[in-house]
Structure formats: structure tokens, C-alpha cells
Amino acid sequence: MLKVKMDLGSDAVILSTRKVRKKGIKGLFSKPMTEILAAVDDDIISRRRSPEPEKIKSAVSEDKTRIDLLENRLNRIETMIKNMYDAQKNEALSVSERVLKYENPKIETSRISAINRLNARPYENPYMLFTKKLSESEVEPEVINALVNNIRHSVGDSDSYEEIMAVAEKKVKEMLGQPQTIRLRDDGKPTVVLFVGPTGVGKTTTLAKLAAEYTLNQRKKIAFISADTYRIAAVEQLKTYAEILNVPVSVIYTPSEIREAIAEFQDKDLILVDTAGRSHNNVAQFAELKALVNNAEADEIYLLLSCGVSRSACREILKHYSFLKDFKLLFTKYDEVNVPGIILNARYATGKPLSYITVGQSVPDDIEVANVENIARSIL
Ligand SMILES: Nc1nc2c(ncn2[C@@H]2O[C@H](COP(=O)(O)OP(=O)(O)O)[C@@H](O)[C@H]2O)c(=O)[nH]1
Ligand SMILES: [Mg+2]
């Protein structure tokens, strides 16, 4: 109101207010701003300035009703602005304040601000800063809790943030565990490896990257089986890689055909099976995948997850693939995220080992064995 009056004079009234955000992606993360549309009623001003004598009387009473109206309106606006200000104050809570609020849900916002004012250094407790850091890395609260307990167990109520972080790095690395890669059988039979995961996660690309490594660098005999017949393009994509790498492909249309396809490739060292992406809600597709898994009796199954998937989507995906007894986690699109918190979450939730991570679209270069040290550092 002060700003409006400074710009337009004391007769200005607010016509409307609304919350707006800055345009573009950045705006999504910035605090909302308040846009106020205000105006001055020229009639009132001119009448006030030059009232004709004979009209003064009626003008006065007219003005009085107008003033009453305006006063009413002003009161309403005042309440509105106060409400908006309160709401804004709530949204403008800093992370430390939110942590306080999170830990004490019943605490009033005004009190949080007061506590923080008293507390010149809001992160006096290094565990709080640690918690903040990890939740910014998209780590699930449950995992953060486990870590905090684990660290406290080692160093107690340390007030050195550096000490906590040093221990945390060790604990996160422990939590991530050692990655496991494809282990070839040594009984002369081919090793059968199945790749499963949501559509578009990067199954076919990853399979081609690994095939290139095993055929070009390790000189192994490879075969592909494509069970992704939902999309013609998917088979074509695999066939293209197969041609480049000079690897045979067998396309199967029902889960029962996989045994035969595997039998056909008994002279190979490694059989890589590409499956169709499943939409989480398609029960029939999942039944088919289960049948495929049962029939294939694969030596290893890799569940692919994109590093960029949201925490809730990740939970959902893991739930749908929980029918798999044994699998390894393979994370794709590491290059597309700043912080790979999802890796820690999925590892914690499943207890399954990490394996490879893929770091770009380029076949065959953009794949590596998960580097636990780098991942831990990146999360912290
Ligand atoms: N940025 C990035 N893109 C990837 C990565 N892996 C795969 N992709 C891309 O993701 C898209 C889907 O890959 P595709 O292998 O067809 O997924 P599928 O449906 O699971 O078989 C393609 O455009 C790939 O190039 C990765 O590690 N990083
Ligand atoms: Mg595919």
C-alpha cells in the first residue's frame, strides 16, 4: 500500500493482486512475487480540487459516502495484504527454519523466525546442516535418518561439521557398497543377462554399449535376443547395433520362445536380452515380463533406473519390479543430473548391488562401472 501511495498518491486504490512467478524454468524455483494493480480515480481528485461553491454541499455528502466506501475498501485491502504478507512469510522460511518446523510441526511461524533471530548461526548443530545438504540431494528422509544415526553412533554429538562430513563420506560409501559387473560363467555355457526397466530408460542403448565392450575389447562371442516387440522401432534399433557389431539377433514374440532362442546360441559366451519397457500400470505387460523372467532363467538381471527419476517415481518403479528376486541396479543418464541421490535411495530400499552407470548417449563410450567414491562425494 505504501508503494502504491508513493507512486500514485494517497487517493490510489488497489484493484487487484495476484501471485506471479518469474517466467521460465528459473521461475519455478524462485519465490513468488506479488503483482498489484492499482489506480487513481480521476473524478475524485478533480472534484476535490475544484469544488463549485453551489455544489459543495452535495459534494460533501457524496464525498462522505465515497470516503466511507473507500475506507471500507481500504480496510478490506489492509486485511488482504496482511494475509498475503503472512502467507509469504511462511513461504519465505529458510531451509533451517523449515527443518525447525519439520521437527516441531506445531510451532508457529512467528516463533520460528524469533528463534532464528536469536540464533545468529542457524546451523549451530552440524547434523542439521548435514540433513539439509542431503535433502537437497534428493535423498529420502528415511535414508538421511539412517545415516545420521549411523554417524552419531561413530562420533556422537560432534559439533564439527567437517568431522561429520568425513565420517558421512565413509558411511555413504559403505551404504552404496561395491559395484558388481557381469560375471561370465566358467562352465562353457553362455551367460544370459536380462535388461529390464521403464520405457526410454536406456535399455537398448546400454545393452549395445556393453556388447561393444565384450565383443570389441574382451573378444567374447555375443548374441542379442530382443523381446521388445511392442515397438517395431525397438527391434530395428537393436538390429542396427547388431549389424555394426556383427552380432546375431533373435527376435521373440512370446515369453515361451526365449528358451529356444537361448538354446540356439549355446556356442556364445554372452547373451544379452533386451526387453520392452513397461508402463507401471500395465498389468498384462508385467505378467508377460514375469513369464519371460521365469522362462529365461537368466544368470543376471539388470534393473535400469534413470538418475533423473523423481523420488516418488523411483519408489513406484521399485515396487513394480519387486517380483524380481535377484537383480543389480544399473543407473542411466548420470550425465543429466547434478546430484544422484536416487542411487543411494534405490540402493537403500532394495539392498541390491550397484553395477554400471551410463553417462551419455554415445555408444559405446558412455558407460562405466559405478564409481562409489564419486557418487558419495556428489551426494554430499
Ligand atoms: N543423456 C543420456 N541419454 C541416454 C543415456 N542412455 C540412454 N540415453 C538416451 O535415452 C533414450 C532412450 O534410450 P533407449 O536405449 O532406446 O531406451 P529403452 O526404451 O529403455 O530401450 C535414447 O535417446 C538414448 O540415447 C545416458 O546415459 N545419458
Ligand atoms: Mg529399447
Q: Could you characterize what this model shows?
A:
It is a single chain. The protein has 380 residues and is an alpha/beta fold. It has four domains: 2-92, no CATH class; 98-122, no CATH class; 126-176; 191-379, P-loop containing nucleotide triphosphate hydrolases (Rossmann fold, 3-Layer(aba) Sandwich), CATH 3.40.50. The protein is built from 16 helices and ten strands. It has an eight-stranded mixed beta sheet, sandwiched between helices. It has a two-stranded antiparallel sheet with strand order 1-2. Helix 9 crosses helix 16 (372-379). The two termini are 44 Å apart. The mean pLDDT is 85. It binds guanosine-5'-diphosphate and magnesium ion. Residues 199-205, 277, 332-333, 335-336, 358-361, 366 line the site of guanosine-5'-diphosphate. Magnesium ion binds next to helix 10.
Layout of strands and helices, then pairs:
Blueprint: H1 2-8, E1 13-20, H2 24-29, E2 33-39, H3 42-49, H4 56-91, H5 95-103, H6 109-118, H7 126-136, H8 141-155, H9 161-176, E3 191-196, H10 203-217, E4 222-226, H11 232-245, E5 249-251, H12 258-264, E6 270-274, H13 283-296, E7 300-306, H14 311-320, E8 328-332, H15 341-350, E9 354-358, E10 367-369, H16 372-379
Parallel strand pairs: 3-6, 3-7, 4-5, 4-6, 7-8, 8-9
Antiparallel strand pairs: 1-2, 9-10
Helix pairs in contact: 5-6, 7-8, 8-9, 9-16, 10-11, 14-15
Bound molecules: guanosine-5'-diphosphate (GDP) and magnesium ion.
Magnesium ion binds at residues 203-204, 228, 234, 274.
